[in-house]
Amino acid sequence: MSVANRTTWYFLSSIGVPLISLAALPLYTTRLGPSHFGAFALGATIAGLISGVAGATSTLSLPHQLSILEGRDRTHYLSAVLTASLLVGLLCLVFIYPLYTQASNLFGKDYLGRKSLLLALLAGVLNAMWTASVEILGIEGKAKTYAILTFAQALINIAVVSFCIFSLGENDNALFYGFIAAAALGTFSAIVLFLRPTSLSSLKMWLPKACAGSTSAVSASIAENGKLAFERSYLAGFAGFAALGLYSHAQYYKNATMTLLNALSRGVLPTALEEAKLPQPTFAVTQEVWDIVQIFVACVCIGFAFIGRDVIAFLTHGKFTDAASYTVALLIVLLLQTAAKTHAMLLLGRGLGNLYANLNTASIGIAFLSLFLLVPHFGVWGAIISMYIQVFLHKIGQYIATKRITKLPFSDYWVYGGGIFSAFANIFFIQKEYSFSTRALLLISAYIMIIWMMRRNFANFYYRMKPRHT
């Protein structure tokens, strides 16, 4: 499948899934409030810690092994990858459950009820194989399969949550049941797509290959997901579930935007890895696509800075309006995360995935320590500041690391320019109470200016993505 077709399918799924979830949000918020979403945010984080660590087990071995293996060897390897992810997921469950219980007893706070905790843990284990499968689908370029499955997961999630809320009156755990239903579908899909019967001796032979480089990847995943779990638990303790609910709601918009970003990222991944292998890589195709990614994220940041408060109030019946400033700040974090894309691809394509993962782990570790100092004094803003610390350290590390290989041009002007403009615009409109129509007109004017400035980039991108008829 061409980069154009891959990107199109990823883009369709990445637009469709957030839109489906967004359409359900006004329905959910008729019965659910910030505290419900805060509790689910903590539970989903615990589940993400399990599935993230399990899915990371083979992250560094997959790109290389899938490029050289064929036939039965490839089949055995993929079965070993899924088996490894499941085993690591179960191992995480064994550690996390007693750890959470002891932490709750130590601090005298049971953040989640027993039922919610068990549902979250189950969802984490169910998601383990699907998380690994997403990586496989991305490397193999099976964008259509990925799109169909993510649509199906979103729809079954909404159906189950709605049934629990409006038919069973199960408000407290409705979001958890929907989460489990989507995870179960992902597990089933992973089994059908990639898991094949294999002997114990074959597993013994292929599991080491599946787990090659797992130490760095798993350490990075533990650091990243562990930081998030600690951050949300810490926030719940200092600020309560309502504040955590506002924060997680702001993260919803960041994550929805990130899903769209990942569509283009997955679409260009195989091409970027090929470009990285060149003696003097220029990343011509990668940079063309990534310019559009950065412009898109910058436009989302600017949009929320201008009219985000009104949009959130409309979607949530006014219950989550205070999350607007958090949203802008988190979207700027996401914009910063798009920096140094070609630098990251160079490291991964040249077999330096361990270095990339270690840089990530180090930056997360420092940001994790900053939470202890910042959250007690600044609450949610303390957690957001720690994210800025993490992303700046990680990107600086990538810039420095790639200089040892080859010199890549700086191409992240939209990242830093868009972030600064969004921050100042958000502060300005908080202080100056302009009408919605005035802010909307200013926003449209800003978008027209951006389109005019980047017209050549859009033309090049369209030409690159246009299907070729042979």
TrEMBL record:
<feature type="transmembrane region" description="Helical">
    <location>
        <begin position="366"/>
        <end position="393"/>
    </location>
</feature>
<keyword id="KW-1003">Cell membrane</keyword>
<dbReference type="Pfam" id="PF01943">
    <property type="entry name" value="Polysacc_synt"/>
</dbReference>
<keyword id="KW-0812">Transmembrane</keyword>
<feature type="transmembrane region" description="Helical">
    <location>
        <begin position="413"/>
        <end position="430"/>
    </location>
</feature>
<protein>
    <submittedName>
        <fullName>O-antigen/teichoic acid export membrane protein</fullName>
    </submittedName>
</protein>
<dbReference type="InterPro" id="IPR002797">
    <property type="entry name" value="Polysacc_synth"/>
</dbReference>
<feature type="transmembrane region" description="Helical">
    <location>
        <begin position="324"/>
        <end position="346"/>
    </location>
</feature>
<dbReference type="GO" id="GO:0005886">
    <property type="term" value="C:plasma membrane"/>
</dbReference>
<keyword id="KW-0472">Membrane</keyword>
<feature type="transmembrane region" description="Helical">
    <location>
        <begin position="77"/>
        <end position="97"/>
    </location>
</feature>
<feature type="transmembrane region" description="Helical">
    <location>
        <begin position="234"/>
        <end position="253"/>
    </location>
</feature>
<feature type="transmembrane region" description="Helical">
    <location>
        <begin position="9"/>
        <end position="29"/>
    </location>
</feature>
<dbReference type="InterPro" id="IPR050833">
    <property type="entry name" value="Poly_Biosynth_Transport"/>
</dbReference>
<feature type="transmembrane region" description="Helical">
    <location>
        <begin position="292"/>
        <end position="312"/>
    </location>
</feature>
<feature type="transmembrane region" description="Helical">
    <location>
        <begin position="35"/>
        <end position="56"/>
    </location>
</feature>
<keyword id="KW-1133">Transmembrane helix</keyword>
<feature type="transmembrane region" description="Helical">
    <location>
        <begin position="436"/>
        <end position="454"/>
    </location>
</feature>
<feature type="transmembrane region" description="Helical">
    <location>
        <begin position="117"/>
        <end position="139"/>
    </location>
</feature>
<feature type="transmembrane region" description="Helical">
    <location>
        <begin position="146"/>
        <end position="168"/>
    </location>
</feature>
<feature type="transmembrane region" description="Helical">
    <location>
        <begin position="174"/>
        <end position="195"/>
    </location>
</feature>
